[in-house]
């Protein structure tokens, strides 16, 4: 049986090593437990063991577990591909929507948030590898979409998120992380209403160490926390 508490302890130790090597404190890095297909009880175990947030990929699965109180005690992030027709179901439910990858989504989220009388926190998803099959804005569109977001009521952009291409060579993956960090730093120098570059979310179970070395301060980890799906 997978020991979630022990797994999180090992992940925290690895995060701490990467953080220190990159000149930061371990507590500067937020651990999001990616809980796709995991039960409410497993999620509760992860929260009890001290993860900083829980991330879900699928709207219906998330809503079902939300009704069970699975996320009580930790912020809830939506980290999967977000379809336009699902926006109304998650605005106000998630503390942070990480995967906002189009102008249309920004406008829909803002409109729904305004109707609820809230401000929805989001990250802008960047398709750092410019892969045609992936969602997210292209790197060169980042400034334009942040300018748009600054004019939309009901949202607050807290940073950027990325999933680099799947590659065998860690060095190549690091290069994508590094490019993403430089984009993040560049955008941090801009001044927009409703936008603050607080979080750079990148790195999963097989890549979070390199992501932290490159500058990530939010990692989304499933297998290394919960075990194999």
Write up this protein.
The chain is α/β, with parallel strands linked by helices and about 230 residues long. The protein has one domain (about 5-225): Alanine racemase (TIM Barrel, Alpha-Beta Barrel), CATH 3.20.20.10. The chain is about 40% helix and about 20% strand. The protein has 9 helices and 8 strands. The chain has helices at about 5-20, 40-50, 60-65, 85-90, 105-115, 140-150, 170-190, 210-215, 225, and strands spanning about 30-35, 55, 75-80, 95-100, 120-125, 155-160, 195-200, 220. The chain has an 8-stranded parallel β-sheet. Strand 4, helix 5 (about 105-115) and strand 5 (about 120-125) form a beta-alpha-beta unit. Helix 1 (about 5-20) packs parallel to helix 8. The radius of gyration is 17 Å and the shape is globular. It starts with a helix and ends with a helix. The mean pLDDT is about 95.
